[in-house]
Amino acid sequence: STKYCARVNCYKRKNAAKEQVKLSKELNNLQDGCDQCLQKDAGLALEKLKEQHEWELESLRETLKGTWTSEREELLKAHQEAIERLVEEITAKIKTETSVELNASFDDKIKCITEKHTNKTEELQKLHSQEKKTLTDNFKETEASLQGKVDVLTAELQVFNELKQRVKESVLTRDLQRNIKDHGSPGSFWEQELNSLLFVIEMKNERIQNFSKKLLQMEALAEKNLSLEDRVKNLLQQNEDLRLRMEKHQTLIQELSREHARLQESLEKESLLSQRLNQEKEELLYRLVNGDSPPTFHVSPFTPELSPR
């Protein structure tokens, strides 16, 4: 991993620094020896020691330069990867925040639609109840009124039939027929009686016609009543359909609420992961800037074990 490589490179730099200190000590010792050799043997040994020292220093510089270049490239590569991960995390966070905003907007719309649906259903139920009550009251009033008229007309018809039967069977009619048979024509008295009876009969016939018209009106009202009953049944069916739709709507709202809770939980997990990755990025940047200085950020509890070469 990138952390492991960074620790290995750090360990290499420390070993190289130790070797440089060791060589510096050896150089100092050699210089002390050279001072003693100068007293014994002047130039040749000193030149050889200087050449050897310069060669060793040059080798050490090349070694340190190669090591630092390799570590620098690895750190730059790790930094670039961290930046790419950070860009991906920011993009994912933006998508998540957008999703949260959309979920909030969706919840508001669902709430608004639910309120409108509930209000509309209550309004329809109220109108349905009022219309049903009005139709029922009108039907009862019309039925009572028509039943009263039917009773009155039935009584009048019965009286008329009885009167008609009495007229047919009355002694007056028999006397009239006998008078007509004996004298050839009735007298004025009989004519008046006959005219009176004819007037009564015509009046009753007129009332019978009115009664027939009223019966037709009653039949029309009965058909209208059947139509109103069908309409009431349709309204009841519509009310039941609305109730079923409301139950389905409530079930859908509950499912959406559970889905929203799952999305919220997933968002919290993603947020925690993003915070941890940001801490690791800050630690990496801190190490890149400050070199071997100990980091002050929280690091992962997993620490790879380094073994010196």
UniProtKB/TrEMBL annotation:
Keyword terms of this UniProt record: Coiled coil, Cytoplasm, Cytoskeleton, Lipoprotein, Myristate
Cross-referenced InterPro entries: MTUS1/CCDC69
Subcellular location: Cytoplasm, Cytoskeleton, Spindle; Midbody
Predominant subcellular localization, coarse grouping: cytoplasm
Stretches of the chain forming a coiled coil according to its record: 201-283
Domain of life: Eukaryota
GO CC annotation: midbody; spindle
Family to which the UniProt record says this protein belongs: Belongs to the CCDC69 family.
Protein name from the UniProt record: Coiled-coil domain containing 69
Organism listed in the record: Lepisosteus oculatus
